[in-house]
Amino acid sequence: MTFPNDDTGNVLAEMQEAGIDLNDMHDVVFFQLFEQEAQAQQLVDHLKTAAPEMKVVIHPDETPNVWDVDCTVKMVPSYDGIVAQEAEFEQLATTFKGYNDGWGIEA
User: Fold this and answer.
1) 33-80 confidence digits (pLDDT tens)
2) Assessment of whether the complete model's pTM goes beyond 0.70
3) Residue 89: which of 12, 31, 39 has the closest Cα?
4) Based on C-alpha coordinates, what's the Rg of the chain?
5) Where are the transmembrane segments (predicted)?
6) Which is deepest, 28, 53, 62, 105, by most CB within 10 Å?
């Protein structure tokens, strides 16, 4: 498989080179960052209702005064699927005054 030459494409290519089968279902984690715990909690509360099957974890970031919301989606990590899901999370995070900060696959 070949991927576009951007951050998402490069990560997928590295995963493929590392032997990860990108045709299988994986737990893909999308990272959202917030400056206030209350804003992060609003996203968590929203997702509990909107996507109850999604695993959502809130925790303090390594950076002081920053909160992470890790959203795990079970999916086949295709380029188009990742890009679409990231755009959806970016829009959602922005609604609660946060932003999407990338993704990864739980190994």
Assistant:
1) 999 999 999 999 999 999 999 999 999 999 999 999 999 999 999 999
2) yes
3) 31
4) 14
5) none
6) 28
